[in-house]
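Retro notes
What went well: the complex prediction finally ran end to end.
Inputs used:
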Amino acid sequence: MCQSKAVPMFSTDVTRDGDTTVLALAGELDIATVAELRELAYAELDRADCRALVLDLAELTFLDSTGIGCWVQVRTHAASADKQVVIRSVPVGVRRVLEISGLLPLFS
Amino acid sequence: MPGFEDVDIDRPGFQVPDDPDASRVAQLAQVSAELSSASTMAAVINAAVHHARRAVGASVSTLMLTEGDHLRLVAGRGMRVGAQQQWETFPLDASLPAGEAALTATPVVVTGVEVAERRYPALHEQMALGRTLVCLPMDGARPSVGVVGLTFEAGWRPGEAEMALLSVFAEACGQAVRRVHASGEAARHDWELAFLAQVSLEMGSDLDYQTTLANVATLCVPTLADWCAVDIAVTDGRPRTVAVAHVDPDQVRWARELQERYPPDYDAPSGVGNVLRTGRSEFYQQITDEMLVAGARDEEHLRISRELAMHSALVVPIAGREQTLGVMTLIRTHDSPVYGRSDVVLAEEVGRRAGIAIENARLYRQTQDVALQLQRAVLPDAVEDIDGWQIASHYEPGGRSGVGGDFYDAVPLPDGRLALAIGDVMGHGVPAAAAMAQIRAATRAYLSLDPDPASVLGNLDVMFERLSITQLVTLWYAVADRAAGTIAFSNAGHYPALRVPAEGAPEMLAAPTRLPLGAGGDERVTTTVPLSAADVLVLFTDGLVERRGEVVDEGLQRLVTAAPALRSPDLAAATGRLAAELVETDHDDDVTMLTVRCR
């Protein structure tokens, strides 16, 4: 009984390489976890030496519409400073959802 | 506890000499220096009891600290066997020299002769006629923080100069004890902060308060309690035990059994019921066997109670803003230390935080209800058939993530055509439901100006840009024309509608993929395809086809496979059955479906 939750639902690994920051997303990105990603992504994009943000989705296990909305917000934030946001290692399920919503070209 | 062995003292007593380097005085100065740098109680004891005894040539040295109205012997050297148990703790007012010294903050010197004269009958056995006992208060407080006791042999008795020196030494002991206490308190304070931070984290992590309380009970064990139970006031005002944690998992069963077989009497003048009524903590520092006997309902109850070996308890309120929401019972068993005042303060703080967590969870539920009401108010209760059009709908709010922002509409146009819309505000809760209401109203307004799909979506793009709306909204919008046998549509990032013909396979009404509203605008296009009289159109949102852990094409395929059932004459019933077939019972997202048939 009374098992406390030890495994986080969502985590992000940050790697900076020159003017590119890679955020490796792992776990479930949904309403409960988007704020964490948004905060982190904005902080990286606000760094003067960051020109591009790469969202690596290899370890992403779930994504809902709130998560997609967050990516679009991050992309809009980046575009206003003439910076790029791209996604890579896109799981097939995520790719389909982005295709259906017409958003895939925004992150390529 | 240090040892109590007897060691021969080479020469009893000491004298303040004219020569300041004389070894015993120098040794005592050395001990005082040692005390000033002692940072642990063990170091204080080593200096104050062991080293000082040698320095002053005492046969017995003891260190006693005041705890409430008692003195507790924390260390002694040279005591006879059994004496340390006899004097482990005794009342300040028990007519003993140490108690007198503490209460009056004045040194007390007693000789064996005086004891023999019955001034202190309790000391009679151990005070030989030639002995002198000196009890020195460790500070000027009444009672003092503690007492240093020194026994000298062979009729030696300190003079005025020696007493002054011993008093200085005792004060150095007092300062060292206070310093160690303070640093212990600082360490405890750090620990308390870390513990409370962990409690807050635990409470913030789950909005289901029963799970939260169970987690907090577990967190309290073993650091704050060996056994922790949480009772919550339920609607009828009576408490219900919602969590029990025990340091020994096997004992959880015992603890639960005790609760079930002998449910606490909530009407008793003390205990859980009383704390719930009054909102005031109860503190039982020492639970004696007599208390267990008095509280036992029968022999079996007493046996189980004794087996649980509880000896110190705290019962604290789980305090809400306006009322006590529940009660947390913390119990120490077996060899664990008894609770002190600082534990009460800490436990009450945990109770306060638990109260906030529960109220937040309730508030969250209420907010969710508000969002649901908002959504229900905006969505048509049940879409009605409109001249020549048979229409049915299905809506189920999401579970885990709260209410989403799904919406749909069916609006007859003056020329007999039918405007259809289905959309999804990407988000949850009150903001999504509010945005949904706004978009639905705007869509109605634009379609009354010009119902052409590309025009409606283009106008919505302009509205999003002018009002700086960043909320993403997917929208599928169409105008069905019975007379012309066509349907014209435009899609802003939504799932395409499904057309189920009277015969043959259902097909998705594919259109060029365009961005959702709120993603910066896009070029909107109208696609027109044929529509036959018996065709059923299925408009839906992601909740109907998306499932965790699978690619959405699987869900779309399920829909295409099951959709022919909508050919049934009773469209409303068929729509409900189709939703039930496609959606898992514990779905996260809103499920919305609109079905339309041209009659």
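What we learned: Helices of chain A lie at 34-45, 65-80, 92-100.
What to try next: split runs per interface for comparison.
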